């Protein structure tokens, strides 16, 4: 079985994964792209009205009441090209 190549997202490609109108919801953090589509904390691609999916949230984590360890529960679907 062939090994699946990791997807690399540009920021423009990542913006398509905004969780709106049935689209998957992804965000990037620290170079990794996470699938948060099924998370109850990210309904319709929004996180408590503070953050939106489809973007790189690396800088925004400094404002979060949690650390990056919460991302471990989500599947990594690729990397973001900066």
Write the layout of secondary structure elements.
Elements: E1 7-9, H1 11-14, E2 26-29, E3 32-35, E4 46-47, E5 51-52, E6 75-80
Parallel strand pairs: 1-6
Antiparallel strand pairs: 2-3, 3-6, 4-5
Low-confidence stretches: none
Strand content: 25-35%
Straight-line N-to-C gap = 31 Å
Strand tally is 6
Return the CATH architecture: Roll
**Helix residue percentage:** under 10%
CATH superfamily caption:
Cytochrome b5-like heme/steroid binding domain
Strand arrangement, major sheet: 1-6-3-2
Number of helices: 1
Mind explaining what this structure looks like?
- The structure is a single chain.
- With 82 residues, this protein is mainly β.
- The protein has one helix and six strands.
- It has a single domain (7-80), classed as Flavocytochrome B2, Chain A, domain 1.
- Strand 2 and strand 3 (32-35) form a beta hairpin.
- The longest helix has 4 residues, at 11-14.
- The protein is globular.
- The termini are far apart.
- The model has no long low-confidence stretch (mean pLDDT 86).
Could you name the key traits of this structure?
82 residues, mainly beta, Flavocytochrome B2, Chain A, domain 1, four-stranded mixed sheet, two-stranded antiparallel ribbon, 6 strands, 5% helix, 26% strand
């Amino acid at each position: 079985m062939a090994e699946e190549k990791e997807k690399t997202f540009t920021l423009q490609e990542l913006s398509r994964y905004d969780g709106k109108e049935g689209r998957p919801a992804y965000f990037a953090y620290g170079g990794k792209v996470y699938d948060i589509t099924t998370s109850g904390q990210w309904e319709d691609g929004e996180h408590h009205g503070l953050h939106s999916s489809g973007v790189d949230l690396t800088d925004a984590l400094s404002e979060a009441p949690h650390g990056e360890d919460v991302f471990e529960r989500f599947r990594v679907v690729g990397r973001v090209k900066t």
